[in-house]
Amino acid sequence: MKFFLSGCQRSGTTLLRYILDSHKQICVPPETRFTYPLSKIFDDKKTIYAMKTIYNSQDDINLKFKKFLESLYQNYLFKKKKKILINKSAHNLYSMNFLSKLYGKKKTKFIFLFRDGLDVANSLASYKETFNFVKGKTYNSKFESALNHWISYNHTLLKNLKKYKILLIRYESLQANPEKETKKIFNFIKQKYNPEILNFSKFYN
User: Fold this and answer.
1) Fewer Cβ in 10 A, N or C end of the chain?
2) pTM for the model
3) pLDDT per residue over 10-35, tens digit each?
């Protein structure tokens, strides 16, 4: 696992997940919530120091975190009978340092979906489940709170664009020309493209 799909909530990452997951060799599981907590442990200097006091080198720690993370997906991969896994989570944005250290900065690749901020904010504010960051306690409305979250999220992404291997896909472009945009993704992860993935709905009926 060295490929990661991310984007601000309500940016179309679930749609892209369905498209990519319909490929015969690619598996994109539903979003999990354990990668980011693991990254916080990994990035905690006191925790790493404690691990080193019991004779774990940094390489040992990296390898053990990597094996543990991958072991959590083994059953899913086996059941789906696929070889390539793409981890989907909005929080992958905040775990890039952790993931790049586990898999190597040159090999770890991030696919980010970017959607118009007003559309995202409107979708977040009207979504049936209220996210913690759009409750409107700090701002005048849920919409204002959601828009501020989108700005903050993508500001962090912008700061890291040149630091890591990132492919940026516009949601609007994906809708307008799905073949062109999905081919970019397959070129990025160096996998053979199959146009059948654009008929992904038949796999989920």
Assistant:
1) C
2) 0.90
3) 999 999 999 999 999 999 999 988 89
